[in-house]
Design goal:
By secondary structure, this protein is of the alpha/beta class. It has one domain: Carbon-nitrogen hydrolase (Nitrilase/N-carbamoyl-D-aminoacid amidohydrolase, 4-Layer Sandwich). 24% of the residues lie in helices and 31% in strands. The protein contains five helices and 16 strands. A six-stranded mixed beta sheet has the order 5-4-3-2-1-16. A six-stranded mixed beta sheet has the order 8-9-10-11-14-15, with helices on one face. Helix 2 links the parallel strand 2 and strand 3. It holds the Pfam family CN_hydrolase. One of its GO terms (molecular function) is hydrolase activity, acting on carbon-nitrogen (but not peptide) bonds, in linear amides. Belongs to the carbon-nitrogen hydrolase superfamily. NIT1/NIT2 family. Keywords: Acyltransferase, Hydrolase, Lipoprotein, Transferase.
């Protein structure tokens, strides 16, 4: 058994307060014995307007947010998945990369994945349309399959809207992933309709664990996120979930022997013909 933690946050426009909230919950996870903790998308900052995050853009490999993550992982001897950090786009000050970064217990960075599918969507709320255009301030990541070596095994990386593109996850499994991480800031509207369905589908079809830390509540911009942070097993069973619309830690033991048993008894990954 390997204990892992998914952290739910209500991130606001105060960077220092957001980092302190992250520290408190990562410490709680480590003290419970978790070997890996995952933070949600935009854990460090959600401003009043989308361009506000541009002021926090950090160069590759350095900056206060990245240093905070490295120090935090080392302080609590825990592997840490931070999804996402605003990383500067060379030559384009008007956009950032949404970088999901993984740090090992030594503080060393293990992997970086830049979100490749951006949420350019019109959400129908019945009485009005809520318009999202991530590509206005966020740069597309180069299409890539990134699998990070951690204390909780091989973790396939993705972010939020990526969940709607199953080919990404199949590619991660083909590269050895046994745990899929999906940090998110799902809208309350789409989350209520699709969040659990999609998480359990990605777990079942790929015979993987899924860890999905989410943003919750109302943010500085007025945006509402769904929360419902979850950890799901390879059979599609929800091992743990935070139903409360408040920050907190979700813990679950991952039984990798059970995962291998599922893959052996129902070998759908070996039955693929396309």
């Amino acid at each position: 058994m390997t204990l892992v933690a998914a952290i739910q946050l209500n991130t606001g426009a105060d960077l220092d307060a957001n980092l302190q909230a992250s520290r408190t919950l990562v410490a709680e996870a480590a003290q419970a014995g978790a070997k890996l903790a995952a933070l949600p998308e935009n854990f460090a900052f959600m401003g009043r307007k989308d361009p506000d995050k541009l002021a926090l853009a950090e160069p590759e490999g350095s900056g206060p947010i990245q240093q905070f993550l490295s120090d935090l992982a080392r302080e609590y001897a825990i592997d840490l998945i931070a999804g996402t950090v605003p990383v500067a786009v060379p030559g384009d000050p008007g956009r950032v990369y949404p970088a999901c970064l993984v740090y090992g217990a030594s503080g060393a960075r293990l992997a970086r994945y830049d979100k490749i599918h951006l949420f350019d969507v019109d959400v129908d709320r019945g009485d009005h349309i809520e318009r999202y255009r991530e590509s206005a301030t966020i740069a597309y990541g180069e299409p890539a399959y990134v699998v990070a070596p951690t204390q909780a095994g091989a973790v396939g990386l993705s972010v939020c809207y990526d969940i709607r593109f199953p080919e990404l996850y199949r590619g991660l499994v083909q590269r050895g992933a046994e745990l899929l991480c999906i940090p998110a800031a799902f809208t309350d509207r789409t989350g209520e309709a699709h969040w659990e369905i999609l998480l359990r589908a990605r777990a079942v079809e790929n015979q993987c664990f899924v860890i999905a830390p989410g943003q919750c509540g109302t943010h500085a911009s007025g945006r509402k996120t769904w929360g419902h942070t979850m950890i799901v097993d390879a059979w599609g069973q929800v091992l743990a979930e935070r139903a409360e619309d408040t920050p907190g830690v979700v813990l679950a033991d991952l039984d990798f022997e059970r995962l291998r048993s599922v893959r052996e008894s129902l070998p759908s990954l070996k039955h693929r013909r396309l």
